[in-house]
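Severity: low
Component: inverse-folding endpoint
Summary: output formatting inconsistent between runs
Steps to reproduce: submit the following structure tokens with default settings.
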């Protein structure tokens, strides 16, 4: 699913403010003190004083000094966990095959794959020519390079001399000659786009700074389309670049001036059309350009209509349209590719079965869907034959299509996992319905030397009853034999925004918690998409509080049903899930022994009130517009964590953020922790800031493991299992 279909988390940006002073740590237990510099805002007759607005001044030395002091304090307060952190990191490393190789994916005359090498932070992107009569993907022993391998891009070489590294684009041209790739060395998700000649290994002089995600090649690979952002960091322009020319000569193909909408670009699997997707949270419009005529004028598939969402996939003589026009959980239709017009039904709307995507192949369509809280795949043969759903054995699982670049194929690659089953890659024959396991992610023996055995763990689906009588699903995993008498510690994870679903996933790092007797649970609250579009609608705008009360109901249910006790329960969430963490801390501080809030959107009202901040306007369809609507203002003010800190006994709180995060500004958790200390003194509140990363945290895999070990050590300490 392209990135713009699911924004997934709040975007934010830096704000300026008066500088403040920092009181350094003077004793073992004294936290840094943020000086109060009152700043006022008034909306709808309501005046709010923000004493810590100065912390948004990212370039001010006082801000950096304060964050550095907070890091030092956090390190001091968690120094007793150093040995445990080292153990947890080592357990992740021991269980992970460090030198490894993904299952190669065929595209044209090559197999494409990525390798990792022990001791190296980043992947090595490679390909190897397909050999005569070769139908199955090649394998290698212990992740060694394939015979005849061609290295396309080595992330470790690109990252040399940088604390952070991320790839934005990695796009091989249809003829296999060029590689378009983009790099980010700060974490702000602003990339420099380059083109590499794969026949010579040389970089072309083409260099385009300030690009965003999304690229697409023309048929003859002479033209590359890409995306840039406006001053509010909203993806708003699609450009056309002629390979070998200067970036200054590039042409704007599509510009979106409505600040509610963002744009994206991609090449269809058939390689016949360039798709320009224009999308707000609730409305969309798709334009197409023949890939063989890249200078042609974009044609609109269907003009935008407020509240109507649709996506497009090319299939032969038709465009497939997945849409919600009169179909809350979406329906599938098609229209002519030569003269787009009326939509002809293909799969009628079925309430409770949410259609999420359609992938077209020459002789089959594969629809990704979800029903009863589980993901699924439906196959529609073209030209005759009954449609069917692919069956999977476990009661809880996640399944979806993996990389499938070939249009003319009789099999598809899919990815499967559960809370106890490691990530598994299958090739599925669309005709014979046979499924072949190509690879299951290795889980090596842990500290005790025993191999991983999924039979030693059990997963469950439970249901909590919300305050309004709604049944809220919970997914759980624990070791077999974990007591149900309330004595087991538990981590409860949540998100609940943007229709993003927290489907069951496998985690090597989580094994370290499970093996110490911890129950891991996921609360599938309203605001997510687990139970269809209505589930999402009931947790957004003026129904947002359902997300928070659902999570608390799940926590209470886990205690009532004997899974854990409130003094043995830690909550965890990130980004919009960090907003959830801050809200439940205010709503039910007695329900948790600790709370982990990663890159948390805890100052939501301040951000959503400022249309000059990155993507605030696009977020109004998710949260409401408090700038214009006094009801939305009052509602958001009543739940925004920073606005509602009270003089109560809060559980211990660990807030983790990144200085260069462009989605949720570091100052939100920094201000939140400062206000917690001022209003509810005596609590255990920690702030940890990555000084050289973005929204996703550290970019290297070893650094990410250390970060996870740090958080898990803190959780175990709060649960009495340190």
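Observed output (run 2 of 3):
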């Amino acid at each position: 699913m392209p990135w713009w279909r699911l924004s997934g988390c709040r975007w934010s940006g830096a704000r300026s403010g008066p500088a403040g002073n920092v009181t350094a740590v003077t004793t073992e237990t004294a936290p840094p003190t943020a000086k109060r510099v009152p700043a006022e805002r008034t909306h709808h007759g309501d005046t709010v004083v923000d004493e810590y607005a100065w912390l948004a001044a990212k370039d001010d030395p006082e801000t950096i000094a304060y964050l550095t002091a907070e890091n030092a304090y956090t390190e001091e307060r968690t120094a007793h966990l150093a040995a445990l952190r080292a153990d947890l990191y080592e357990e992740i490393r021991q269980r992970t095959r460090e030198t490894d190789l993904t299952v190669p994916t065929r595209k044209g005359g090559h197999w494409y794959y990525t390798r990792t090498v022990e001791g190296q932070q980043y992947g090595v992107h490679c390909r190897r020519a397909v050999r005569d009569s070769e139908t199955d993907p090649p394998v290698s022993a212990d992740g060694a390079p394939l015979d005849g391998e061609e290295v396309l891009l080595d992330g470790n070489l690109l990252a040399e001399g940088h604390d952070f590294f991320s790839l934005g684009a990695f796009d091989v041209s249809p003829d296999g000659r060029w590689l378009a790739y983009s790099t980010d060395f700060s974490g702000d998700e602003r990339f420099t786009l380059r083109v590499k000649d794969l026949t010579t290994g040389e970089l072309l002089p083409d260099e385009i700074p300030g690009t965003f995600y999304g690229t697409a090649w023309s048929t003859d690979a002479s033209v590359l389309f890409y995306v840039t952002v406006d001053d509010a960091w909203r993806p708003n322009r699609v450009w056309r670049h002629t390979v070998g020319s200067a970036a200054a000569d590039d042409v704007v193909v599509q510009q979106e001036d409505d600040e509610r909408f963002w744009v994206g670009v991609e090449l269809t699997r058939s390689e016949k059309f360039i798709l320009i997707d224009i999308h707000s949270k609730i409305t969309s419009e798709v334009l197409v350009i023949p890939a063989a005529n890249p200078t042609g004028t974009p044609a609109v598939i269907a003009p935008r209509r407020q509240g109507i969402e649709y996506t497009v996939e090319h299939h032969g003589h038709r465009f497939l349209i997945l849409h919600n026009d009169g179909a809350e959980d979406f329906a599938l239709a098609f229209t002519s590719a030569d003269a787009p017009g009326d939509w002809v039904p293909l799969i009628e709307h079925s309430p409770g079965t949410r259609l999420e995507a359609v992938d077209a192949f020459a002789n089959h369509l594969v629809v990704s869907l979800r029903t009863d809280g589980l993901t699924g795949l439906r196959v529609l043969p073209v030209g005759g034959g009954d449609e069917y759903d692919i069956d999977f054995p476990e009661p809880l699982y996640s399944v979806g299509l993996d990389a499938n670049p070939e249009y003319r194929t009789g099999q598809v690659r899919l990815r499967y996992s559960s809370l106890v089953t490691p990530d598994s890659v299958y090739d599925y024959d669309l005709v014979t319905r046979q499924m072949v396991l190509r690879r299951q992610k290795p889980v090596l023996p842990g500290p005790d030397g025993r191999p991983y055995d999924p039979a030693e763990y059990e997963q469950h689906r439970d249901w909590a009853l919300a305050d309004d009588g709604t049944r809220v699903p919970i997914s759980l995993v624990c070791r077999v034999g974990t007591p149900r008498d309330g004595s087991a510690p538990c981590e409860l994870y949540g998100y609940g925004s943007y229709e993003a679903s927290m489907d069951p996933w496998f985690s090597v790092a989580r094994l370290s918690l499970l093996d110490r007797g911890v129950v891991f649970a996921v609360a599938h609250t309203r605001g997510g998409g687990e139970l269809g579009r209505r589930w999402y609608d009931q947790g957004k705008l003026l129904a947002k509080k359902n997300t928070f009360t659902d999570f608390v109901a799940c926590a209470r249910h886990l205690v009532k049903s004997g899974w854990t006790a409130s003094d043995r329960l830690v909550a965890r969430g990130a980004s919009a899930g960090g907003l959830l963490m801050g809200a439940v801390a205010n709503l039910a501080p007695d329900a948790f022994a600790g709370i982990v809030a990663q890159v948390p959107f805890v100052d939501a009202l301040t951000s959503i009130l400022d249309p000059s901040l990155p993507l605030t306007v696009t977020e109004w369809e998710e949260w409401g517009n408090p700038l214009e609507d006094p009801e939305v203002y009052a509602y958001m003010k009543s739940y925004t964590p920073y606005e509602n800190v009270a003089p109560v006994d809060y559980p211990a709180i660990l807030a983790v953020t990144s200085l260069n995060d462009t989605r949720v500004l570091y100052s939100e958790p920094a201000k939140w922790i400062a206000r917690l200390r001022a209003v509810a003194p005596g609590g255990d509140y920690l702030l940890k800031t990555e000084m050289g990363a973005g929204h996703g945290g550290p970019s290297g895999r070893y650094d990410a493991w250390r970060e996870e070990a740090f958080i898990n050590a803190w959780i175990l300490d709060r649960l009495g299992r340190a």
